[in-house]
Write a structure and sequence with these properties.
Blueprint (H helix, E strand, L loop, with lengths): L1 H4 L3 H13 L6 E5 L4 E5 L12 E6 L9 E7 L4 E16 L3 E4 L5 E4 L2 E3 L2 E4 L6 H4 L23 E6 L6 E10 L1 H12 L5 H10 L1 H14 L3 E8 L2 E9 L7 E8 L7 E6 L6 E9 L7 E5 L3 E4 L6 H4 L7 E3 L5 E7 L7 E15 L9 H9 L3 H17 L2
Antiparallel strand pairs: 1-2, 1-4, 3-21, 4-20, 5-17, 5-19, 5-21, 6-7, 8-16, 9-10, 10-15, 11-14, 11-16, 12-13, 12-15, 18-20
Helix pairs in contact: 4-9, 5-6
Length: 398
Amino acid sequence: IGAVFGVTAGVLAASILIVLATKESCPFVYSWDGSGYVFDAEPYGGAITRGLERDDYGELEQLVASDGAYRLRLRNEVNEVQYTNQLELMVVDHPAGTRVAVDRDGGLHTLRALGLLRWARDAQDRDLRPWLDSTDSRIWEPPAVPGPDSSYRQDIVLAFPKPDGARRAKLVANVATGLWGSHMFRAMLELRGNQVSAWYAAVDGRPSARDSALAWNVREELYELKIYVEEPTGWELRGLLQGGGPFIAEDRVVPLDVSRVVGPELHIRIRPPRGFWALNSFAVDYSADEAVRVTRVPPSAARDAEGRSVLAALRAADDDYYAMPRTGDRAEVTFAAPPAVPGASRTVLLHSRGYYRLNLPPGGEPDTAALRRMTEVPGTASRLAAAAYSAYVRTRAP
C-alpha cells in the first residue's frame, strides 16, 4: 500500500496492524513439503454459517509425497469455531506443457497458451499493468477509502489479445479477499447485535434467506466479483469471480463467452469495492481443454492433537463434521499418493467443504437502521467499511 499510494508512516503502520489484529479467515492448511509443514491453503472463506457452507478447491503447491503418502495439517489460527465436513485430494495428471486450474464450481481446465495483459487502467487512467501482469509479490490492494472521484469502487479495464474466430476464453485470475474485507465479516455481523443467532438460524434453515444473502453478496461484489466483457452492445455481464484467502490467493478460471467480441482485443471490466479485493494477476487462455486423469483420494488417516481419530468426520460430505472450537486446534491428515503417470505432469488440488462461525462478543440491540440501509441501498456496505477503516487508522496509528 505504501509503495502504491505513498501513504504516511502512520497509515502504513496501521495497515500492518490490520494483519496482526483483525484477520478473519477460515482453516489454515499446511502441506508437508518433505522437511516440514508449509502454509498452503485457506479453504471455504466466507462460509460464515452452515447455510453458506460450500465446496472449495485449491492447488497445494508445496505438497510433496513422502513414503508413498501426502500429509496435511489442518489448524484453527483465528478466533472462530471451524467445521470441516470433507477433505479429499484431487490428484490431476495432465499433459506435459500444460497447467490446470479450477473454476468456481470445481470444473477443471487445462492452460497451455496464456495470453498476457496488453494493458490495464483504472478510472484515473493509472497504468496497472505492472501490478497485474504476473503472479508475484506486487498486489493491487487500495485501502478502504474513497478514491479521487469520491467513489467507493475502483473501475478497472483489462485488455488481452484475441485470436480471430475465438468464441470461448478462460480468464485466469489470481485474486483474494482483501484484509479489510475479511475483517468486515465480523463488523457486519456485529451490527446484528443480539439478533445474530436469529440471522444464522434463518440462513441455515430457510433457502429463501440463504438465497437472499447470496444475491446481496453478488449485488455488492464484496466477495463475488462481476466480470464484464465489452461487446457491440456495451459492457455485458459474462461471469463471476469468487473471493478467497485473504492470505493465499488461488488461480481461478472464469469461462467466458467471447463470441460477440469484435476486433483483435478482448476487453474485460471489473469494479471491485475498495478494501475488499487484493488483485495479483490476470491472463487469458483460448486453448481447448485437454484430457486429464483425475484420481480422487479420500484421507486414509486423520488424528487430532490428542491422537483421536477424526477420519469418519472428514471422509464424506454429510452431517458429521470435524469441529475445531479453539484457536490452536489441529488435525494431521494422511492420503495415499497414487503412482506417477509416465510422461504426465501432476497437480494436486485440495477439495474441501465446510463453514465457520466467528466468536462474537455479547451483542446489544441490533443497528436496524444500518442493516436496513445495507439491504435497501446499494453501496452502503462499502461506505460502512470505509468509515470503519478511517476509525481504525485514527485509533491505531502512532
